[in-house]
Amino acid sequence: MSADLTAGIHDLSVATTQYVLTHETLARQTGADVAKYHKGIGQQSMSVPAADEDIVTMAATAAAPILARHGSDRIRTIVFATETGIDQAKAAGIYVHSLLGMPSATRVVELKQACYSGTAALQFALGLVHRDPSRQVLVIAADSSKYELGSSGEATQGAAAVAMLVAADPALIRLDNTSGLFTADIMDFWRPNYLTTALVDGQESISAYLQAVEGAWKDYTEQGGRSLADFGAFCYHQPFTKMAYKAHRHLLQYHGHDVDEADVVRAVGRTTGYNSVIGNSYTASMYLGLAALLDGSDELTGQSVGFLSYGSGSVAEFFAGDVVPGYRTHLRTDQHRAAIDRRADIDYATYRALHQRSFPTDGGDHATPRETTGPYRLAGLSGHKRIYEPR
Ligand code: CAA
Predict the structure, then answer these.
(1) Whose CA is nearest to atom 9 of ligand 1?
(2) Does 248 participate in catalysis according to the annotation?
(3) Upper half-sphere CA count for residue 358 (Cβ side, 13 Å)
């Protein structure tokens, strides 16, 4: 591995769902004061997948523009990160590989460790690029977060995919080799194979996250990482956007700093624009934070960005990167805003029906209703096989 080689995020593309449920609509149903959602957790609305959308359709929608711009000749690996797996054996990335017509000489694999695995996929990709800088890796993080109807987690659902092209001499973010790591065996959030909704101990999950911030940062400094003052912005995992503020306050307090709220807003405020309207997209969430930061109006060239990736259970990693000069010409800001604006507002009854929808398990032929206006759809199930098609 060459110490001089720079590698990082060369392109980044976001996709989300057909539908959106606002927190006003949810509050009318739950009886909660809407300010609890808007101010308390920092969420305005959440993306809801249509009957014919899932992690594969969102992932293909996010990745297609990357292939259209760069081709697939140099991509020999797809790493798909998710905790909304659709099969216990087959990697979801293989369906994306097929929908996008990628070459057979491709390695495809799926990674899991709650919301952290998008970062595991990125690190996997960086290792491959350092081994052969002529190659690029397609990293996809896609999830649909789902809690039981009527539970306190319900307000923190959402769905999105982020596709990233990882390459040498990247156009967007150069990433450092130094990382801070943390793992602890904690049951703060989990989903047994037989459940379609996650189980969570809400307050325990927040303290587990904060403990992981501290642990990952401590290791990062012990590994010779940069100092806190070097960073212009921090992208935290955002199960709800207020969590990023809590995490940053905690990091400042760990350093013995008095917390100045204006500093906290400066550090994380620009990363929350997409997450506040999309909701928790688990593995994709921190990278939606990066997309919002880059797509915002501030010029970031040369600024250092700190990343804190957290996955319940729990694993965390702190790492850093620099925004590359000229990055603005490579952004997909209009595409990202269009993906958010395309969503159709749904009422609570429609959301509830989608939430309760499940596939029959009899192995028969079951077509899904045509709902998405996106480029790919889940056409149905036949003989226990998921059938995808371009729309
Ligand atoms: N006006 C303004 N603020 C209000 C309010 C009002 N009327 N009513 C309540 N609030 C505030 C509360 O004071 C609280 O703020 P603080 O945290 O700053 O004290 C906030 O709104 C939330 O209120 P509660 O704690 O009473 O809310 P809750 O009990 O309904 O649960 C939650 C909130 C724990 C986040 C819950 O939504 C949940 O369990 N979510 C899923 C788990 C989760 O996201 N955990 C985060 C860490 S784990 C992780 O990051 C991995 C992952 O992706 C899941």
Answers:
(1) 36
(2) no
(3) 9
| Catalytic residue flag (residue 24) | no
Q: What tokens were used for 300?
A: 């970031």
How many domains is the chain partitioned into structurally? 1
Specify whether 115 is catalytic.
yes
Catalytic residue among 10, 23, 53, 83: 83
Q: Which atom, in ligand 1's list, is nearest to the CA of 239? A: 53
Instruction: For residue range 215-272, list pLDDT tens digits in order.
Output: 999 999 999 999 999 999 999 999 999 999 999 999 999 988 889 999 999 999 999 9
pLDDT in tens, 259-295: 999 999 999 999 999 999 999 999 999 999 999 999 9
**Could you give the CA distance from residue 135 to residue 145 in angstroms, rounded to a whole number?**
32
- Around ligand 1, the residues with Cβ closer than 6 Å are 33, 35-36, 39-41, 115, 152-153, 155-156, 188-189, 200, 202, 205-206, 209, 237, 239-240, 243, 280, 282, 310, 312
Range of the domain at 121: 7-390
Residue 378 belongs to domain with CATH number: 3.40.47.10
Contacting residues for 269 by C-beta, under 8 A, at least 6 apart: none
Distance of CA 220 to the CA centre of its chain: 22
